[in-house]
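dumping these here so i dont lose them again. two proteins, back to back, each one seq then structure tokens. dont judge the mess
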Amino acid sequence: MENSKQHLEALSGIKDLMEKSTKFISLSGLSGVIAGITALIGAFLADLRINHYLNNTYSKTRLEMYLSENLMEKLALELFVIAISVLVISITFGILLTMRESKKNGQHIWGKNSKLLLLNLIVPLIAGGVFCLILMYHGLFYLLAPATLLFYGLALFNCGKYTLGEIKYLGILQIILGLISAVFIGKGLLFWSIGFGILHIVYGALMHFKYNNKPQNA
């Protein structure tokens, strides 16, 4: 009985070592939580700006305000600044916390596995970013939320084989939200908040509690 237990522990150790050598396992759960909170704050600010433009009628009706190109361009610029701010804050904390996890796990932050992870992540994200710029150029702002969720979900699913397997499920949920958001036009900010905000917080918290107390010598 004791020998069987030792064999199981040895096999578990070998499995962990193989996973550590073939996957970048140093993604920080806390960075997901911070990204989610930042996204929710950004969504709240975006909602305030949108309501400001819709409610600020002055001598115009809401329809006229909506159709005004100058106001739409100004609103789009403000929302773009908010989105970039959220992205910069999330990436900054993500890099810092991932560096800390890499040091803790004894992995190089810029090794073979992390390069493969970044490559598989960044290609769909760049394609999605360019696609979103094209949507903005054509004035199809209502498709931005579905597009960002879809491409982000595809990016996460694509890089799942090079990091923690759970990230694939986060990617699938983002894809599903993106498709639903494309059906319910006008509710994009709500679905965006759920995807980039709530799902990130839940995923980050689960990953933090699952892996934070895992022995680092395994």
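---- next one ----
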Amino acid sequence: MKILFVYNKKAGKKYEPSVVKEITSRLPNSVEGTFIDIRDFADCKTKKFDMLVAIGGDGTVNTVAKRCTKQKLILGIIPKGSGDGLARFLEIPRDVNGALSTIFSGKTIEIDTAKVDKNFFINVAGAGFEAYVAHKFGASGIRGLRGYANTILDSFSTQEEQEVTLTLNGKKTTLPFFSLSVANGSQWGNNFEIASEADIQDGMLDVAVMRKPKWPQILSLIIYLKSKKQENNSLFTYYKASEIDLKRSGKLWHIDGEPIVLKNKKRIIVYPKSLKVNVSS
């Protein structure tokens, strides 16, 4: 079996060179492992490999998963990011040994992927406040949960609600939003779940539209995002759809946590069971 391991030195708080050595020392004799920096991945020929393994966070996983989808290769994940939303959702261990056991001894499942216009995503894409935070977080260079928390606190007072028009499977609705998530997986990362009922194999996307909370609501919001519940309430309205059109959602978006600038009108489509990924048995 030939596996290409794609590592990202900028993922998470700090890159650990020992990760490559640890993986190499644990490779079975039946596995031929090759390692490459993600900066060289675009020019790498990958059709000869059976599996591509992303060593990094959701952005790294997105890049590698896109190639796996295109070339019908199996995706493996060794989580090393700041939030690791997809890995947590798929219950992939966050230690190297556990993740490798999943890669070598786990099972292969088929999961959905999606696109915002032509931009591939696998976990969560979003607009509004969460996109603003992603752009500011990306520019700050400070990684980890503390970096996210500081960015959120610094940004909260400056951002206001907007109005968005959603067309969900042909049905149009207009409503105010502070943050808008289109979820294939359930969580942003760090076990904060934005769409706890998301099913990554159902051919549908969960749309979570959040109003701006008042300061006294912040603690209850945090508890809610940790509660593994998904319900319409004073802050959240949820929808499910396989095709989504958006107007006036803003140009700032994130795709699996990576900041991106998009045109004002957007179309989102899900591609059912288009990616093979190894998960725990």
